[in-house]
# Entry
Amino acid sequence: MDTTAAPLTGADRKVDRLLAHYEESHRHPVNEVIHMVAIPAIMLSIVGLLFALHPWVAYMFVAASLVYYAKLHVPAFLITMLVGTALLLAAVHAMGNLVLPVSAAIFVVAWIFQFVGHKLEGKRPSFFEDIQYLWVGPLFVLSKIFQRLGIHW
# Structure
């Protein structure tokens, strides 16, 4: 029995399957643009809302999210998510006492835009099928940015 495993490539990797499925409901160009802005805004708002509840709740959420990304075994995504998480936490801290109202406003507005995008697309958001697609959304944004920059991950 051969115990050496070939590295996973293409559609063999879980991250590739997740992104391919996610992209099926995000093909409309306007919907894609909306997602490129709204997904980071939603992540900021979620971290901000959790921080308003208690800072450790936000820290646990981002730690659990990073574990999820680490389990996908894509170093470029993990490193970018680590940097992005630090920026999100810095932005949340910068909001100070306004973290709750600012995060709530961002959350509502960003989700309105998301649903407008899906109305244009004619398809339901992927997370209605599986909650993990809430964490795949940021990877979708990164994958689009990486593609535009010519970065192969």
Notes: Residues 29-53 form the longest helix (25 residues). The chain has a mean pLDDT of 90. DSSP finds six helices and no strands in the chain. The CA atoms of residues 68 and 147 lie 22 Å apart.
